[in-house]
């Protein structure tokens, strides 16, 4: 249904040609850039991203002034260690939501990975091998979601609510109510270690590489641009030659794999492998992604915006904790932020729409 | 399509945003370098301005509130300049870590923690100790490597055995029983359950009692209620339920009291007198047990003070004064015992208010 291989390659070839005008060099730019409107969308996203980053900056500066000891490398270390799982999973989640789908099973995949890790390691397997198997498990879990959603055409919300329970259940089957803690001290120490005096966790290097990879895929490849089209209209995307099923399948492979990485990180950072690890993380991730300006209806969003969203929630969280504000307040704050971030653009576009229609109405008839 | 503007700002925008984020992270750590030194100095503090922070398993738990009430009283009497309570809303393994981190950064002198997981809090506690904090575990122990002392309500085995005794009495020494516990990973609950299972197997008095199920209500009222309901449906011959958690026993009692099983299925475990009073009076529950949780927090605060002052190091045989409760000794494994559990029934329950 999603187009023959021929039409796919045609679409793939066409897109880079259209993408080139962005660089502003080829002579076709004037012709192609105007009807396409992609860069226009990006400009609007720039506005949204920029706002997010300003808000983040304001929060950081305000917290540095008001909260004693907030402005310190220690904060950076603790804060980043806390947000890394959210940050990791938010990357593929951004792509999934932009393409108009959702994945609620990510935290359960992380939990399953954690459980597997515990059992395999306790069983005496080489730690390297354990890690490889865990990543593969994430890949398989993602593929399972992917097949159901992309190739059987089932709604992702229903499928991943199911696998949310299924994978968590499997985790419980794998490890039961045990907790495995005796991971190699060198390895667990590495996962909480920081780069010199900067406070930046060493693992952040890997996370940054992943961020760059996902940003490049989403914003600079035909595949990534196709996801935006997919989120706007699946039919239209199919017509322009995007292999919808394949794209979706790849996305779920990515969420599965990255969730496994987050599960491994979680296990080693807390040096505890348990079936209930990372529970509830899916909602934190989705909240951060939406706050970062990704439209829940698909078609809109960016990696920089999401980064700002994740860091904003993380910073507010940590700052309030440092100020010993109760977690009850904390939940209210993040909840309100989310509502505002979803409502604000709607109000803005409603105003714009109203202005536009007034202008149209008052325009002289031909 | 709605967006019909053109321009090449898209990529530059994305890059600019990325760069800004990166710059932000860098500036956040760069700017703080100077303040860090002064921060940790004031944290070490001299005597008289010592601070103590309690980190319970989760907030908004009635049992925890009583423990913390005792802790705050103890902290005041022991002479701490300030005492704080911080903690997560959910009792998951890792939820306490960021609270420990924040306290480490604030330079808190004594951290009193009831661990949701004995190991997950380990690295964070190690950092706290490296920064000079004393760690007292209470209620639910951490791995002994990560704390200076563990203040335990009572001997874990006593707690387990008293619950078995109570259930055996109430069901006439034979029949099917089940356990409704807190979370599947709760250190203290699991230890009690382990002792109960061992005793059931080894003690001939309990030969006719069969433990048919262990379920977990996650210390969540609704979930515990549903688990209790499920137990009675799944095991029609069930004679009794042991719930070694105050949330679980109250929820189960609430279910039993409105069901056909009221008075027929025995319920015992660890409960708060104030929560259980109506169920004892209406005949749903005959007798249950608990220590005075306020004493737990109280002793923990004094233990923290003794550690912070350097009076004790947590070695076996160390002794310290715990206010009005008198002298306490550190036992094997750095464990301080508070006292034996109390049994509550219709005759004495009105004497207690917590």
Automatic annotation (TrEMBL), chain A:
<keyword id="KW-1133">Transmembrane helix</keyword>
<keyword id="KW-0813">Transport</keyword>
<feature type="transmembrane region" description="Helical">
    <location>
        <begin position="51"/>
        <end position="71"/>
    </location>
</feature>
<keyword id="KW-0472">Membrane</keyword>
<feature type="transmembrane region" description="Helical">
    <location>
        <begin position="328"/>
        <end position="351"/>
    </location>
</feature>
<feature type="transmembrane region" description="Helical">
    <location>
        <begin position="157"/>
        <end position="175"/>
    </location>
</feature>
<keyword id="KW-1003">Cell membrane</keyword>
<feature type="transmembrane region" description="Helical">
    <location>
        <begin position="305"/>
        <end position="322"/>
    </location>
</feature>
<feature type="compositionally biased region" description="Polar residues">
    <location>
        <begin position="1"/>
        <end position="11"/>
    </location>
</feature>
<feature type="transmembrane region" description="Helical">
    <location>
        <begin position="77"/>
        <end position="97"/>
    </location>
</feature>
<keyword id="KW-0997">Cell inner membrane</keyword>
<dbReference type="InterPro" id="IPR001851">
    <property type="entry name" value="ABC_transp_permease"/>
</dbReference>
<feature type="transmembrane region" description="Helical">
    <location>
        <begin position="127"/>
        <end position="150"/>
    </location>
</feature>
<feature type="transmembrane region" description="Helical">
    <location>
        <begin position="280"/>
        <end position="298"/>
    </location>
</feature>
<keyword id="KW-0812">Transmembrane</keyword>
<dbReference type="Pfam" id="PF02653">
    <property type="entry name" value="BPD_transp_2"/>
</dbReference>
<feature type="region of interest" description="Disordered">
    <location>
        <begin position="1"/>
        <end position="28"/>
    </location>
</feature>
<protein>
    <recommendedName>
        <fullName>Autoinducer 2 import system permease protein LsrD</fullName>
    </recommendedName>
</protein>
<feature type="transmembrane region" description="Helical">
    <location>
        <begin position="195"/>
        <end position="218"/>
    </location>
</feature>
<feature type="transmembrane region" description="Helical">
    <location>
        <begin position="104"/>
        <end position="121"/>
    </location>
</feature>
<feature type="transmembrane region" description="Helical">
    <location>
        <begin position="249"/>
        <end position="268"/>
    </location>
</feature>
TrEMBL record, chain B:
<dbReference type="InterPro" id="IPR013459">
    <property type="entry name" value="RhaS"/>
</dbReference>
<feature type="domain" description="Periplasmic binding protein">
    <location>
        <begin position="52"/>
        <end position="310"/>
    </location>
</feature>
<dbReference type="InterPro" id="IPR028082">
    <property type="entry name" value="Peripla_BP_I"/>
</dbReference>
<dbReference type="Pfam" id="PF13407">
    <property type="entry name" value="Peripla_BP_4"/>
</dbReference>
<feature type="signal peptide">
    <location>
        <begin position="1"/>
        <end position="33"/>
    </location>
</feature>
<protein>
    <submittedName>
        <fullName>Rhamnose ABC transporter substrate-binding protein</fullName>
    </submittedName>
</protein>
<keyword id="KW-0732">Signal</keyword>
<dbReference type="InterPro" id="IPR050555">
    <property type="entry name" value="Bact_Solute-Bind_Prot2"/>
</dbReference>
<dbReference type="InterPro" id="IPR025997">
    <property type="entry name" value="SBP_2_dom"/>
</dbReference>
């Amino acid at each position: 249904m999603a187009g023959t291989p021929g039409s796919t390659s045609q679409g793939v070839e066409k897109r880079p040609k259209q993408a080139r005008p962005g660089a502003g060099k080829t002579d076709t730019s004037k012709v192609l850039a105007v009807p396409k409107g992609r860069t226009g969308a990006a400009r609007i996203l720039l506005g949204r991203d920029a706002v997010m980053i300003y808000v983040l900056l304001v929060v950081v500066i305000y917290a540095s002034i008001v909260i004693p000891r907030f402005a310190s490398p220690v904060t950076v270390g603790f804060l980043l260690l806390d947000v890394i799982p959210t940050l990791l999973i938010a990357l593929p989640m951004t792509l999934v939501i932009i393409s108009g789908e959702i994945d609620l099973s990510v935290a359960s995949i992380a939990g399953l990975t954690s459980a597997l890790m515990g059992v395999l390691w306790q069983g005496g397997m080489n730690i390297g091998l354990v890690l490889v198997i865990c990543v593969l498990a994430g890949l398989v879990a993602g593929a399972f979601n992917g097949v159901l959603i992309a190739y059987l055409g089932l709604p992702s919300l229903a499928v991943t609510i199911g696998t949310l329970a299924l994978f968590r259940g499997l985790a419980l089957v794998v490890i039961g109510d045990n907790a495995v803690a005796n991971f190699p001290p060198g390895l667990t120490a590495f996962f909480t270690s920081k780069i010199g005096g900067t406070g930046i966790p060493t693992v952040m290097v890997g996370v940054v590489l992943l961020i760059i990879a996902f940003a490049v895929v989403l914003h600079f490849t035909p595949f990534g641009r196709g996801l935006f089209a997919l989120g706007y209209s699946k039919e239209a995307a199919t017509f322009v030659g995007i292999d919808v099923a394949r794209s979706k399948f790849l996305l779920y492979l990515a969420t599965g794999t990255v969730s496994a990485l987050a599960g491994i990180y979680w296990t080693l950072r807390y040096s505890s492998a348990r079936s209930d690890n990372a529970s509830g993380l899916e909602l934190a991730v989705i909240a951060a992604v939406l706050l970062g300006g990704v439209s829940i209806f698909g078609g809109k969003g960016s990696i920089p915006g999401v980064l700002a969203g994740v860091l904003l929630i993380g910073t507010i969280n940590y700052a309030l904790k440092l100020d010993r504000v109760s977690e009850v307040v904390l939940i209210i704050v993040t909840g309100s932020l989310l509502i505002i971030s979803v409502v604000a653009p709607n109000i803005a576009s409603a105003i714009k729409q109203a202005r536009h229609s007034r202008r149209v109405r008052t325009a002289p008839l031909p | 399509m709605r967006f019909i503007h053109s321009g090449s700002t898209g990529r530059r925008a994305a890059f600019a945003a990325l760069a800004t984020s990166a710059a932000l992270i860098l500036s956040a750590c760069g700017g703080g370098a100077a303040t860090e030194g002064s921060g940790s100095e004031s944290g070490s503090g001299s005597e008289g301005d010592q601070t103590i922070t309690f980190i319970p398993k989760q907030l908004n738990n009635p049992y925890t509130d009583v423990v913390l009430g005792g802790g705050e009283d103890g902290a005041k009497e022991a002479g701490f300049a300030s005492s704080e309570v911080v903690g997560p809303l959910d009792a998951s393994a890792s939820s306490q870590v960021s609270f420990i981190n924040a306290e480490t950064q604030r330079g808190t002198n004594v951290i009193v923690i009831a661990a949701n997981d004995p190991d997950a809090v380990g690295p964070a506690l190690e950092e706290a100790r490296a920064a000079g904090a004393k760690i007292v575990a209470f209620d639910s122990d951490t791995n002994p490597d990560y704390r200076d002392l563990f203040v335990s309500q009572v001997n874990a085995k006593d707690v387990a055995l008293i619950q078995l005794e109570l259930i055996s009495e109430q069901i006439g020494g034979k029949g099917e029983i089940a356990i409704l516990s807190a979370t599947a990973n709760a250190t203290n609950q699991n230890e009690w359950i382990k002792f109960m299972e061992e005793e059931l197997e080894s003690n001939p008095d309990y030969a006719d009692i069969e433990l048919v199920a262990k379920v977990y209500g996650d210390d969540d009222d609704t979930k515990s209620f549903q688990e209790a309901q499920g137990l009675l449906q799944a095991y029609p011959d069930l004679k009794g339920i042991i719930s070694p958690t105050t949330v679980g026993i109250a929820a189960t009692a609430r279910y039993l009291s409105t069901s056909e099983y009221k008075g027929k299925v025995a319920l015992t475990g660890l409960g708060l007198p104030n929560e259980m009073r109506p169920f004892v009076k209406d005949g749903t529950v005959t007798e249950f047990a608990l220590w005075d949780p306020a004493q737990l927090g109280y002793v923990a605060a004094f233990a923290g003070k003794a550690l912070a002052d350097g009076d004790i190091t947590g070695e076996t045989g160390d002794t310290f004064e715990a206010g009005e409760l008198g002298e306490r000794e550190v036992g094997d494994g750095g464990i301080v015992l508070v006292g034996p559990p109390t049994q509550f029934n219709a005759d004495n329950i009105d004497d207690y208010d917590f």
